[in-house]
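TEACHING EXERCISE
Course module: macromolecular assemblies
Task: Read the component lines below, then compare them to the predicted structure of the full complex.
Student: A.B.
Group: 4
Components provided:
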Amino acid sequence: MQKTTKHKLTLAVLAVSLLASSLFLGCAGGQLGKNNSGEYRNGMVVSASELASQVGVDILKKGGNAVDAAVAVQFALAVVYPNAGNIGGGGFMVYRSAKGESNTLDFREKAAAGAGRDMYLDATGNPIVDKSLYGQLAAGVPGSVAGMAEAHQKYGRLKWEELLAPAVRLAGSGFKLTARQARELNGLKARFKKLNPLGTALVKETTWTEGDVLVQTELSNTLKQIKEKGRNGFYEGAVADSIVAEMQRGGGIISKQDLANYKAVWRKPVTGNYRGYEVITMPPPSSGGIALVQLLKSVEPYPLQRWGFNSDSTVQLMVEAERRVYADRAAHLGDPDFYPVPQNKLIEDAYIKQRMSTFNWQKASTSAEINAGEIAPTEHEETTHFSIVDRDGNAVSITTTLNGSYGAAVVVKGAGFLLNNEMDDFSVKPGAPNMYGLVGGEANAIAPGKRMLSSMTPAILAKDGQLFMVVGTPGGSTIITSVFQTILNVIDFNQSMQSAVNAKKIHHQWLPDQVDVEEKALDSLTTVKLKAKGYKIVPRGPIGRVDAILKTKWGYYQGGADPRGDDKAIGW
Ligand code: DON
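Instructor-supplied answer key:
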C-alpha cells in the first residue's frame, strides 16, 4: 500500500471514530452520554427529589445496576422526601432486565395479627374515619426494608452497605428543605405535635423556611442498623423494640412477631398488549395492573389519535372505560393470598368487549348507587414513584407509600421514621369510602396478615423486545388513570415523555359519579358537550405526579419529571 493511501486511511478511521465518540459523548456541554435534546444514553433516574435522583445516578455511575440504584433511591427518599419516601411503609417494584425477563416484588404492608374486620367501626357499626388514618393503630406492618433487601439479594450488584451510605449521610448531616417541603411541614405542625408528644425532628418551634437544614439523627441511626444488619436491623433488635414501644404508647397493635414474620413476595407480573406494546405491571394486591390493562384494552378498538387528545369523544370513552373498571375494582380485587381474585377473567378480551358494549354515545352511563356518602380527599395525598434505567438497559419502576402525606403522622420515637396509615386502604366497612373515595367489600375486608388493596401502578412497556417506557405515579385512586393517560399521550398522541407527564389529566372512578378535571384539561366547548350528555364535570387541583422514562428509537433516554412537584430527571 502506498504511503499516502495509508495516511488517508488512517485519517478516515480517525475521523470516523471521532464522529462516533462525539455522537456518543454528545455535543451539549460535552457531558457524558447526553445529546442536544437533553436525552441520555447511559441511564436515568426520575424521582420526586433532586437529591434522591442524584443518589441513584451516582450509584449507576459507580457500576451499580438499576436495582442497586433503586435501593439507594428508596432509602434516600425516606430521608429527603419524608412525606412519602419511607422505611415505615411499603410498595411495589416492577423489574425488566435488559434481556427482557420481568418480575414484580410485592412489599406492601400487612394487617397485624391482632387486626380484625371491624377494628375501625364504632359501637353502632359506623366507620370512625380518623382511626384508620392517624396514630399507631392506622399502621400496617411495614414492608419497604424487607422489599429492598429482597430486591438486592436477587438482582443487586454493589454491596448493600454502599447503597445505604447516602441515606445515612443525608439523615445525619441533614439536607436543605425545598419551599414546598417547608410549607408542608409547617402546615402539619399541630398534627405532628399532637401525635408525637415526645418530640420529632420534623417539628420546629419557629417556622421552617426554604433552605433550612433538616437533620434526622434518630433516622440516621436506624438506617445505620439497616446498613449493618440488613433486614434484621429493622425487623429485629433495637428498631423493632422502638416500633413495639411506639405501638404500646399509642394503642397500636403491631407486635415483634408481626415484624419478624413480614416477608416481601415475588409475584408474576400482569401483562397485556396495547397497540403492539407489551405492558408489564403489578398484580394484586395492587388493583393498578389489572385496571391499567383493562383500561388500555377497553379503548384499543377506538381511533383515539384521530379524535385527538382530550377531545369530547376521547374523554367520554376514557370515562366510560374507567367507570366499568373501577366498579370491578370495588367488587373483585383484594389480596390474592386471601381472596380468589378473578385475575385472568378480568383482562380477557371477550370480557372487556362485553363490558364496553353497554354504553351509549349519546348519553352518560350512571354509576350504580350504593349506601355510602361521598368523601372528597380531605388533604394532600402522598405516595411517590421513581423510574430507573441503567447502562445495560435493565429497568425498575417502583411506587412506594405511607398512604396519606406523612402517613399516620407518628414518628417512631427513638427510630426516627414515620409510620404508614395504610390500614385505610382496606374496606373498613362494605361500601364505606376510604380517604380516596374508593369503596370495596368482602375482597378487601380486613383480616390478620392480609395486604390492603392498592391502586399503585408501577409499569414498564416494551416494544419488539426492547425497553420502551418506565412509568408510574402517586395519587391514590388517580394513580391508575394518570398512568393510563400518560401511556395514551405517548402512544396515541405522539407526545414526548415530558409533555405526556405535563399534560393535564382527568379522572373518573365509578363512585362518586363525577368526572374530576384538572384545571385547563378540557376546553370550554368540550366541557359543554360532555355536560350536555349528562357528565358531571368537577374541577380539581393537580392530578398525579408522574415520573417516567422513555427510550427513543435512537437509544437515548428521555425523562419526564412531573412539574406538579419538585421532581427531577437526572441522566448520564
Ligand atoms: O396504595 C394505594 O393505592 C394508596 N395507599 C396510595 C396513596 C397515594 O397514592 C397517595 N398519594 N398521592
